[in-house]
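Entry 0007
Protein: EamA domain-containing protein
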Amino acid sequence: MKNGIILAVLSAFTFSIMNVLVKAASETIPVSEIVFFRSLIGTILVLFLMWKYQVAFSRKGIPMLFLRGALGAAYLLAYFYTIAHIPLGDASILAHMSPFFALIFSIVFLKESVNKQVILWMPLFLIGAVFLLDPFSFDSYTLYALVGVLSAMLAAAAATSIRYLSRSHHKFEIVFYFLATGTVISIPLMWGEFVMPSLTGWVFLIGIGVVSLIGQFVLTSAFTHENVMVVEVVRYIGIFFNVLWGFLFWGEVISLGSLLGGACIIAGSIALSRRKKGKKVEKAA
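Output (structure tokens):
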């Protein structure tokens, strides 16, 4: 097995561990507080890396950096909230709707072209979302699932901003703004509901910060060893990991609707990842 594929599997496994820690911590700690400590720990670690590798802060593109940070922070809040309230497997499947939104954002904001074959696959995402959201149930699960869809949309928006910023900024700086903004935004949100973590809670919070950063580094390494398309497809094994942990630790059983919805979303995402990149359309003056 190629190193890139092994690293892609390891990254999916690592992020599934982070999801387990988030769900476990959310039983006693508010989501906003989890986001705060996750972001704070990551900010400190990234600052250390920037100092070690002498990466300076840019003086240009500051508004876009803050926008990327705000989108990333909003994504974390929405995704962690979803993990806290619905089965891990369902939350993971909903998060994997991001390629659908990323495609739309790339067309609208990056002015990238798209072929007709891609458009034909789009209905699969909508069908998959209907199965997962189950709009005819009209219960609280639908609200949580909608937040899960929102997290996928925010992840896609953040990814689009990263693609734009990567043309002129170092990856450490982009990550710093994401984590630092998450730290600041989560402070007022957790202000009135702060809970002093127990010893176990501190273990969860520190683990979330460290494990998530490790997962990001492993994923980056995977992209340096293997084709992006291959890595993204292999990462769908993360859904299996999340379903497994949900069953083992919380007795969660994925429903038939979730299986059907997940199959549609996975099939659509794989189809999108296999498409040939369309030529960029020149931006209007």
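Curator remark: Residues 3-274 form one domain. The chain is about 75% helix and 0% strand.
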